[in-house]
Amino acid sequence: GSLSLAVVYALLAWRTSSGAIAVKEAGETTMIIALPMWWAYACLAPGLALAALIALLQFFGAQSAPSESRS
């Protein structure tokens, strides 16, 4: 579960980052107040990358944790 989640988050972070670069190069802005749209994409990428890192840490933490046996 955690490993697949990490992969999905990493892919989303990668595509969001490349999308932010493409939108910045195109110079796209919002219609009403003409704010650059790449800001929104750029704000998403670090959070997605952090979520991928946390999912990886959870995966490796679960792998190395000793199994508890109840007596």
Please explain how this structure is put together:
The mean pLDDT is 90. 73% of the residues lie in helices and 0% in strands. It is rod-shaped and about 60 Å long. The longest helix has 27 residues, at 38-64. The chain has 71 residues and is mostly helical.
Please describe the structure with a list of short key phrases separated by commas or semicolons.
71 residues; mainly alpha; 2 helices; 0% strand
How do the helices and strands line up, and which of them pair or pack?
Blueprint: H1 2-26, H2 38-64
Brief characterization of the structure:
This protein is mostly helical and 71 residues long. The protein has helices at residues 2-26, 38-64. Helix 1 runs antiparallel to helix 2 (38-64).
Low-pLDDT ranges: none
Overall outline: rod-shaped
Q: Report the radius of gyration as a whole number of Å.
A: 18 Å
The total count of helices amounts to: 2
Q: What's the story with the biggest beta sheet?
A: none
